[in-house]
Design a protein that fits this description.
Elements: H1 2-16, H2 44-50, H3 55-64, E1 74-79, E2 86-91, E3 95-100, H4 119-126, E4 140-148, E5 151-161, E6 166-171, E7 176-182, E8 191-195, E9 201-205, H5 222-225, E10 228-236, E11 241-252, E12 256-262, E13 270-276, H6 292-295, E14 301-308, H7 309-317, E15 322-324, E16 327-330, H8 332-337, E17 341-347, E18 350-355, E19 361-366, E20 371-376, H9 377-385, E21 389-392, E22 398-400, H10 402-405, E23 406-411, E24 416-421, E25 426-431, E26 436-441, E27 456-461, E28 466-472, E29 481-488, E30 504-510, E31 519-526, E32 534-538, E33 553-554, E34 559-560, E35 569-573, E36 576-584, E37 587-589, E38 592-596, E39 600-607, E40 616-618, E41 627-629, E42 634-640, E43 645-650, E44 663-669, H11 671-674, H12 676-687
The structure holds (dicuprio-$l^{3}-sulfanyl)-sulfanyl-copper and dinuclear copper ion (CUA).
C-alpha cells in the first residue's frame, strides 16, 4: 500500500510539474527509470528519488493534483491589487480559473474596450462630470461574497478600490462586473468591501482622512476640517445593484480608519472598524516633522470604532442627516448623541479586525504588538449600557474602558495582521514580521479546542511576509476548516528570477485534522497583480450559467437586449449607420459594411450560439474595439468612422476550424470622392443582407 501511495504521488507530481515543500530542490528530468508496476508510466520510486522529493512532498502532491476533467472543491476569490481585477482560483489545485475584469479594461473579456455594455464604460460616463479623468484601474483590496444569514450564498461578489474610493459589484451567474459606484464625498477607502450578514449593506470605510465632499482645506486645519467616513451602501439584491439613494454614511474623526468587519449572530447590528493615527499626525517630513510612520505610531492605543448600524439606520430614517451629493450623512455629533458610535482602546497600530463565527468575539491584530487582543461583544454592550467610559476623545466620542470589554490577549508573535477561523475552535492569524501563520485556540466558543482557551498552539513558517490569509469559509458563521491560503507579499527566492518585479506567493496550507499540525501543500506564484484578501467558498454553492439564458442577452442589465437580432441587417438614418450583426460558427452576417468617413456607426452583434464555450470575438483594426460575445450575448459598439480605408473585422476567439474565415470588410470611403449623401444611401443598400 505504501509503495502504491508513493507511486501515485510521484505520477501526480510528474503530471503537475510542480515542486512543493521546504527542502525541495529543482531537479532535471527523470533519468534512467527502472521498471514500474503494470499500468504506470514510470518507476515512481525512481522519480521520487530523481526529483529529490520528501515523503511530505509526495503527500502534498497527492493532496493537490487534479486529474484532467476533475473539479476543485473550493473556489477562492482573490483581489488583484493594483491590477484592478479579481482572480478565481481553484482549491486544492491552486489553478487560476479566471480573471474577472472589474476596474481595468480587459480585451479578452471585451471589457472596457469599445463595448458599450460594461460597468466600466457606464461608470466612466457617469463620473465624467465628477472627475476630470476616466479611471482605467483600481487598487482592489478586499473582496466580499454576498451572504445570507452570515453564510456565503454564492450570488454576488463585491470589491473595494482603495485608491479611488469605489466599489464594484460582480454577478456570479456570469462572473461579470455589473456596477462600479464611486463614493460621492470621499476619494479613498480601505475597510471595503465587507457585508452585513444578509448583505443588507456593503461597508466602505475610509482610510486617509480628507475634508468631506472633496473640498479643499489646508492641512493646518486638519483637526477641524478633515474627517473619516463609514459608508453603508444599500444592496438591492433583486436589481443586483448598490443604491446610493438608500445608502447612508457616518462621519468619523480624522483618524485613519483601517479594516472593518460586520458583526453577526451575537454582534449582529454592529460594525467594527479599526483605526490608526489617532495621533492625527499630518506628516511633513520635509518641514522637519516626524514622518507618518513615526508620528502615527506614538500612542500605545488607537480606537476600535464600534458602530451600531441598525441604530444609525433608524436615525437616517428619522431624517437626522445632511445630504451631500446624494449621500445621507449622519454627522459626528449626531452619531455621538444617538449612541451610534463608541470607541474601544486597542493596541498598537491595529490592522485587522475579525469577528468570530459566533459573532461573540472581535479579534484585533496590532501590527506593533505581539498579541492578538480579543474583545467580547457582551462586555461591549454592557459597558455601553453602563456608560463604563474611560473618557472621551477630542471629538466627544465615548471611549469604553479597555479592561471592561477585553476578554483575552494571546501572545502569538511579531506583526499580527489578520485572523480567520475554523470549525474546531481555532483561530489563525497572519504574522507579517515573523513570516508565519499562528494557530491559537478560541475560548467561550461552540467549538472547543483540546488545548483549552486562548493558547498559542503552533506556528507555520511561510515564504514570506504574509499579509492576509483566507480559510475555507473562514469568515462566515460556518467555517469549513480544511484549507487555508497564506497570501504572502514577498516571494524572494521561491521562483526563478524573472527580473526585479517578483510575483506574490500564495501558499496552500492543510489545516485538517488540527491534531496533525498545519502542513504546507503548494506554492503558487501570482504574477498578475497583488492579491490582498481572498474569500474561499465551497464550489458547489456557485450556480453559474453555462450560456446566457436567451439569445440576445445583455449581461449588463441581465435581460434581453433591445438590440438583439437573429439576422444581419444594416440601416441608415441620416449619417448614422446602424448594423445588426449575427455571429455563429463560422461567419458573421453581414460580411461587408460600406459607408463614408464621418458616418456615425452603431454596431450590434448577437452570438446565436447555444453551445457551451462557443464564444466569438470582434475587432476592427485601429478602432480600439475588442468584444467578447459569449453564447447568447448581444453587444454594442459605437464610434464615428473617422478613419477612411479598408478594415478587415474578424473573430478574436479561435472558435472553429474555419475561425480564420470568420471575418468581413468594413469599407470607409472618403466622402469627397463620391459625395457623401449619395454614397451613404447606396452603401446602406449594398450592405443589407438577408
Ligand atoms: S489590508 S493594505 Cu487588507 Cu492588510 Cu489593505
Ligand atoms: Cu468565431 Cu473565431
Amino acid at each position: 500500500m505504501n509503495t502504491r501511495w508513493m507511486v501515485v504521488g510521484a505520477v501526480a507530481l510528474a503530471a503537475a510539474g510542480v515542486l512543493i515543500g521546504r527542502g525541495s530542490k529543482p531537479s532535471g528530468t527523470v533519468t534512467a527509470p527502472v521498471a514500474a508496476p503494470a499500468g504506470l508510466p514510470a518507476d515512481a520510486a525512481g522519480m521520487v528519488q530523481a526529483r529529490q522529493l520528501s515523503p511530505q512532498d509526495v503527500t502534498a502532491a497527492l493532496a493537490t493534483y487534479m486529474p484532467t476533467g476533475r473539479y476543485d472543491d473550493y473556489l477562492m476569490f482573490a483581489s488583484g491589487g493594483h491590477s484592478g481585477q479579481m482572480y478565481v482560483i481553484g482549491l486544492p489545485s491552486m489553478r487560476v480559473l479566471r480573471v474577472i475584469a472589474a476596474f481595468s479594461p480587459d480585451s479578452w473579456q471585451g471589457y472596457g474596450v469599445g463595448v458599450k455594455e460594461s460597468a466600466l464604460a457606464e461608470a466612466q460616463a457617469r463620473d465624467a462630470g465628477l472627475r476630470p479623468r476616466s479611471l482605467t484601474w483600481a487598487d482592489t483590496h478586499h473582496p466580499a461574497l454576498s451572504e445570507t444569514q452570515g453564510d456565503y450564498d454564492g450570488q454576488y461578489l463585491f470589491i473595494g478600490d482603495k485608491a479611488n474610493g469605489r466599489l464594484a459589484v460582480i454577478d456570479l451567474r456570469d462572473f461579470e462586473t455589473k456596477q462600479i459606484v464611486t463614493n460621492p464625498i470621499f476619494n479613498n477607502n480601505h475597510g471595503a468591501a465587507f457585508v452585513t450578514p444578509d448583505t443588507e449593506y456593503v461597508i466602505e470605510s475610509s482610510q486617509f482622512a480628507v475634508p468631506l465632499d472633496n473640498r479643499y482645506a489646508p492641512i493646518t486645519e486638519y483637526q477641524q476640517a478633515y474627517r473619516g467616513l463609514a459608508t453603508f451602501w444599500k444592496f438591492d439584491r433583486a436589481a443586483g445593484r448598490l443604491a446610493l439613494d438608500q445608502s447612508f454614511a457616518v462621519e468619523l474623526p480624522p483618524y485613519w480608519q483601517d479594516l472593518s468587519d460586520a458583526g453577526k449572530l451575537a454582534s449582529d447590528g454592529f460594525v467594527f472598524i479599526n483605526s490608526l493615527n489617532t495621533e492625527m499626525a499630518t506628516g511633513g517630513i520635509e518641514e522637519g516633522n516626524p514622518p507618518f510612520e513615526a508620528g502615527a505610531s506614538e500612542r500605545d492605543m488607537d480606537y476600535l470604532h464600534v458602530i451600531n448600524w441598525k441604530k444609525a439606520e433608524q436615525v437616517v430614517a428619522a431624517g437626522k442627516v445632511t445630504t451631500m451629493k446624494g449621500l445621507r450623512v449622519v454627522s459626528l455629533p449626531t452619531a455621538i448623541d444617538e449612541g451610534i458610535l463608541h470607541f474601544v482602546p486597542e493596541p498598537k497600530s491595529p490592522h485587522g479586525v475579525d469577528v468570530c463565527p459566533e459573532g461573540s468575539h472581535i479579534v484585533i491584530g496590532g501590527k506593533l504588538d505581539p498579541h492578538v487582543t480579543i474583545f467580547n461583544i457582551r462586555l461591549i454592550q454592557q459597558a455601553i449600557a453602563n456608560q463604563d467610559y474611560e473618557g472621551k476623545d477630542p471629538y466627544g466620542v465615548p471611549i469604553l474602558r479597555f479592561d471592561a470589554v477585553k476578554e483575552a490577549q494571546v501572545e502569538i508573535g511579531l506583526g499580527p495582521l489578520h485572523t480567520q477561523f475554523d470549525n474546531q475552535g481555532y483561530a489563525y492569524t497572519s504574522l507579517f514580521l515573523d513570516s508565519s501563520v499562528a494557530r491559537w485556540s478560541m475560548g467561550d466558543c461552540k467549538y472547543q479546542a483540546p488545548e483549552g482557551p486562548w493558547k498559542l498552539v503552533e506556528k507555520l513558517p511561510v515564504s514570506y511576509n504574509i499579509g492576509h490569509l483566507a480559510a475555507a469559509e473562514g469568515d462566515t458563521v460556518n467555517p469549513d476548516g480544511r484549507y487555508l491560503v497564506a497570501l504572502n507579499k514577498w516571494s524572494v527566492d521561491r521562483f526563478p528570477s524573472l527580473g526585479p518585479l517578483l510575483p506574490q506567493n500564495l501558499q496552500l496550507v492543510d489545516i485538517q485534522p488540527p491534531g496533525e499540525g498545519m502542513r504546507l501543500l503548494y506554492d503558487m506564484p501570482m504574477g498578475l497583480g497583488e492579491p490582498h484578501y481572498a474569500q474561499i467558498i465551497k464550489a458547489d454553492k456557485i450556480k453559474a450559467w453555462d450560456v446566457y439564458p436567451e439569445v440576445g442577452w445583455d449581461p449588463l442589465t441581465q435581460a434581453k437586449s433591445p438590440h438583439a437580432s437573429y439576422e444581419g441587417k444594416v440601416e441608415r438614418a441620416g449619417n448614422t449607420v446602424e448594423i445588426w450583426m449575427t455571429a455563429i460558427r463560422s461567419h458573421f452576417e453581414p460580411e461587408r459594411v460600406s459607408l463614408a468617413k464621418g458616418d456615425r456607426v452603431i454596431w450590434h452583434i448577437t452570438n446565436l450560439e447555444r453551445t457551451r464555450d462557443a464564444t466569438h470575438g470582434f475587432t476592427i483594426p485601429g478602432y480600439n474595439v475588442a468584444a467578447s460575445i459569449e453564447p447568447g450575448e448581444t453587444v454594442t459598439v459605437e464610434f464615428v468612422a473617422d478613419q477612411e480605408g479598408v478594415y478587415p473585422y474578424y473573430c478574436l476567439e479561435f472558435c472553429s476550424a474555419l475561425h480564420l474565415e470568420m471575418a468581413g470588410y468594413f469599407l470607409v470611403a472618403p466622402p469627397s470622392a463620391v459625395g457623401a449623401p449619395k454614397l451613404a444611401a447606396s452603401a446602406a443598400d449594398e450592405t443589407t443582407s438577408g
